[in-house]
Design goal:
By secondary structure, this protein is mostly helical. The chain contains 5 helices and no strands. The radius of gyration is 10 Å and the shape is globular.
């Protein structure tokens, strides 16, 4: 993923008032796994992208392409 996704993921999480730990718990992943997505070290799979959209109430297009 590119830096835009990482930035949007962090912004979406913060605007929902979640910590990384809380977001990870919602997704049933470890906190370090979630943190790696925000830092661009790894990428979530398509199923996780859908879950991210649901928990943050954001479209995948906005999450991946737009500037939040």
């Amino acid at each position: 993923m590119d830096n835009k996704f990482c930035h949007n993921l962090k912004t979406a999480r913060q605007s929902c008032g979640f910590t990384q730990k809380q977001a990870a718990e919602q997704l049933s992943v470890t906190e370090s796994c979630y943190a790696n997505w925000e830092q661009g070290r790894t990428e979530p799979n398509v199923d996780m992208l859908r879950k991210l959209g649901k928990i943050f109430n954001i479209s995948l297009d906005d999450l991946i392409n737009d500037d939040l």
